[in-house]
TrEMBL record, chain A:
InterPro entries reported in the protein's UniProt record: Bact_solute-bd_prot1, SBP
PROSITE patterns (UniProt xref): PROKAR_LIPOPROTEIN
Pfam family, one: SBP_bac_8
Sorted UniProt keywords: Signal, Sugar transport, Transport
The keyword Nucleotide-binding appears for this protein: no
Protein's UniProt keywords contain Transport: yes
Database matches in PANTHER family: ARABINOSE-BINDING PROTEIN-RELATED (PTHR43649), DIACETYLCHITOBIOSE BINDING PROTEIN DASA (PTHR43649:SF12)
Protein name: Multiple sugar transport system substrate-binding protein
UniProtKB/TrEMBL annotation, chain B:
Region (Disordered): 1-20
Protein family per UniProt: Belongs to the binding-protein-dependent transport system permease family.
GO CC terms: plasma membrane
InterPro entries referenced in this protein's UniProt entry, alphabetically: ABC_transporter_permease, MetI-like, MetI-like_sf
Keyword NADP: no
Key word Membrane present: yes
Keywords assigned by UniProt, alphabetized: Cell membrane, Membrane, Sugar transport, Transmembrane, Transmembrane helix, Transport
Biological processes, Gene Ontology terms: transmembrane transport
Topological relation to the membrane, as annotated: Multi-pass membrane protein
Lineage, highest ranks first: Bacteria, Bacillati, Actinomycetota, Actinomycetes, Micromonosporales
Subcellular location: Cell membrane
Protein name listed in UniProt: Multiple sugar transport system permease protein
Length: 423, 321
């Protein structure tokens, strides 16, 4: 009796569920599209909603488009959980570090034909440096809507309080190097008690942000083909030794477990993407934006990217691809350029960018953004990135101790990630 | 078939009889017993439906998923038999994960139960202010777990409140969440302080159920405080000790939010317990099939531990048959 009843209840419940989860969203009537983003910035969402409203007005078969912000920290995890749960969005932003996974797995709809066949799209003006990460076999799988170089934001008030040469002066004198940048940071810490230089979002976990430092030494996390570990290369050992010294001896960077927010005036300098300039709108201190300091291997630039793709498992992939083509056409790209440096060469001029980035001077835009996008190295990424991320983070942890054996730790990182790189 | 026909014909003779018999049969079926049964079932139905929907079905699905390779991004779901179980047997990370899980559970259970019992004994005295202290120790239980953990995260930072306080008395505290053993210890302490109040209340209730005359008799016989505690208190509250230890052991194996907020399994893998590891595998590395296999392992561990504790009760729990 009991067993039969349990079975009956389960069956009824399942039937109920099936009825609820019915085919209401099939493509007969007007469809609703959903795009996941990691930005909950009101200005961003307002612009997206405006473009979406224009699109729905022109396309009666689309009833509405919603933008669904997911917190940045858990973005990819939440997105894949939505996909696993049978509730995939139609379009999604994709972080550069999960680009290889999304591009190679077949999760995304190929876009090249749709974009090329869209009238007035000017597909050929997409910069190859920007689209490289998002392609496989010559096919574009996501549109790199944001190609944002890393630069150094400087709190010039704090640097003058510490009575040290500002990066602008160092640049003018041709001495803007890592050595001098760390020395200035160390002086700021010693004289003002505030943090010297913060590699934003690193926090002793997001190790891929350190590529903004080690690229100056010519180091790489792994080789171009992704097969050889680069953590124990002589360049990396040298870069990490300089960084370790900067943290634990010269106190140029805040140590592990210490937080300092540049945008709250708690640090002299910070390395972050120029899209963060919007955080400086109401700042009470004077600030500057300069390119990354030169390393022993000379000047360099590092870029972070965000892509926008259409999910194959979404219910309205075709319509979603059409909307993507509209959202990223030359007209709308120009609008998006006020927040996200665009991949279109026609928009990558100091004059165009200056119109929409009033906080930055034409020199800053040229030096940091335009030159950065042209020569930039993209932050490290690899298929199976999440597992690699975790292995590198765990492997690097012993480095963040005052008496760490840098070379030994980096050898350890390679031995733990080699099996993953070989996969 | 012919039997049925004959039966139907046989009954066709008396018209009123079948109707009456049917009514009687219906009344006969609808007995008070059956009505009570139905009422009982209706009462438990909400809980039953919840358990079936959110416990039994997912549990079955977890076993099912563990036999598959599920690539979420590619949208493929392939039956691979026991391959996941074989990979689990060879997983190079698993021994370390199980060791950390074991250390965490033992540390948590020992700390939690001894502190809870100590507090309960202290607060069972008829002294002024005990109610205030009881409330104080119980209040963390009702605080939101994540809020609690985030605040502790700030306190345990290198330049946080804990080291600030230690510095004020001249002690140079370690970087709690960055050292191998201090990170695990910190997570244990944060969890113990959060939940010790619950066990304390359970122990208090048990202590108040111990008859006072037993203590009086023991005192007359010359038993000292320790002997009274060991010979009277512990045996008489042993059912509660069993209950709290089961709850605490099972709870310790399920700890997740504290690890996710405070250490993310680090430094290295020194705080990667089984639940966090299976979360990493399933949700971060997108290996849902393997993650499900690890949940099966977790389920078996919890099951075995609970059964063992339940069986052991006969040996040491007072009053048990």
């Amino acid at each position: 009796m009991k067993i039969r009843l349990t079975a009956a209840v389960a069956l009824t419940a399942l039937l109920g569920l099936t009825a609820c989860g019915g085919d209401s969203a099939e493509s007969d009537g007007p469809v609703t599209l959903r795009m996941t983003t990691w930005s909950a910035n009101e200005a961003h969402l307002k612009l997206f909603n405006e473009i979406a409203a224009e699109y729905t007005a022109a396309n009666p078969d689309v009833a509405g488009i919603t933008f669904d912000p997911i917190p940045f920290e858990n973005y990819t995890t939440t997105l894949t959980t939505q996909i696993a749960g049978g509730n995939p969005p139609d379009l999604a932003w994709v972080l550069e570090n999960s680009a290889p996974d999304f591009v190679s797995s077949g999760a995304l709809v190929p876009l090249t034909d749709t974009l090329k066949n869209t009238e007035g799209y000017a597909y050929d003006e997409l910069a190859p440096a920007a689209t490289k990460l998002w392609q496989a076999d010559g096919e574009l799988y996501a549109y790199p809507f944001s190609t944002s170089p890393f630069g150094v934001f400087v709190n010039t008030d704090l640097l003058s309080a510490a009575d040290t040469e500002s990066p602008a002066e160092l640049i003018a004198a041709g001495r803007w190097s890592w050595q001098n940048a760390l020395a200035a940071a160390s002086t700021v810490q010693a004289k003002t008690g505030k943090a010297g230089l913060v590699v934003r979002d690193f926090d002793y976990k997001g190790w891929d942000f350190l590529s903004t430092v080690w690229t100056g030494w010519g180091a790489q996390a792994w080789s171009e083909d992704g097969k050889t570990c680069g953590f124990n290369s002589p360049e990396m050992v040298e870069a990490m030794t300089a960084l370790h010294r900067g943290i634990f001896v010269d106190k140029a960077l805040p140590g592990p477990g210490t937080t300092a927010d540049f945008f709250a005036g708690e640090a002299g300098m910070t390395i972050t993407q120029i899209s963060r300039a919007s955080l400086l709108t109401d700042q009470k201190f004077d600030w500057d934006l300069v390119p990354l300091p030169a390393g022993p291997k000379g000047e360099y630039a590092v870029i972070g990217q965000g892509g926008m793709g259409v999910l194959k498992q979404g219910r309205n992939a075709e319509t979603a691809a059409d909307f993507l083509a509209y959202l990223t056409n030359p007209t709308n790209s120009a609008k998006l350029a006020q927040f996200f440096p665009p991949p279109r060469t026609s928009l990558l001029t100091a004059e165009t960018l200056a119109k929409t980035n009033p906080l930055l001077s034409p020199e800053q835009l040229q030096q940091v953004v335009i030159d950065g996008i042209a020569d930039g190295v993209v932050k490290p990424s690899h298929t199976g990135q999440a597992e690699l991320n975790q292995a590198v983070r765990a492997g690097l942890d012993p480095l963040w101790q005052p008496n760490a054996d840098v070379r030994g730790v980096l050898d350890g990182v390679c031995s733990s990630i080699n099996p993953l790189l070989a996969k | 078939m012919s039997v049925l026909t004959r039966d139907a014909q046989g009954r066709a003779g008396g018209r009123s009889a079948p109707a009456g018999a049917a009514a009687a049969r219906r009344r006969g079926w609808w007995t008070t017993r059956r009505r009570d049964q139905l009422a009982g079932l209706l009462f438990v139905a909400p809980q039953l439906v919840g358990s079936v929907l959110f416990v039994l079905i997912p549990l079955g699905l977890v076993f099912w998923y563990s036999l598959h390779e599920w690539n979420v991004l590619a949208g493929t779901f392939e039956f691979i038999g026991t391959d996941n179980y074989r990979s689990m047997a060879q997983d190079p990370n698993l021994p370390s994960v199980l060791r950390v899980t074991g250390l965490f559970s033992v540390g948590l259970v020992v700390f939690n139960l001894s502190l809870a019992l100590l507090l309960a004994v202290l607060l069972n005295q008829r002294l002024r202010g005990t109610i205030v202290f009881r409330t104080l120790f119980f209040s963390p239980v009702v605080v939101s777990l994540v809020a609690w953990t985030i605040v502790w995260g700030f306190l345990l930072q290198d330049n946080g409140g804990v080291n600030g306080t230690l510095g004020a008395v001249g002690v140079d505290g370690p970087n709690w969440l960055r050292g191998d053993w201090t990170a695990l210890l910190s997570v244990i302490v944060v969890q113990v302080v959060k939940n010790v109040g619950l066990n304390m209340v359970l122990f208090l209730a048990a202590l108040q159920g111990v008859p006072a005359e037993l203590y009086e008799a023991a005192r007359v016989e010359g038993a000292n405080a320790w002997t009274r505690f060991r010979r009277i208190t512990v045996p008489l509250i042993s059912p509660t000790i069993l209950l709290t230890s089961i709850i605490t052991v099972v709870g310790s194996l399920q700890v997740f939010a504290q690890i996710a907020v405070l250490t993310q399994g680090g430094p290295g893998t020194s705080t990667t317990v089984l639940v966090y590891y299976l979360y990493q595998r399933a949700f971060q590395f997108h290996q849902f099939g393997y993650g499900a296999t690890l949940s099966v392992l977790l389920f078996l561990i919890v099951l075995v531990l609970t059964v063992v504790q339940w069986r052991m009760r006969r040996r040491w729990v007072f009053h048990e048959q």
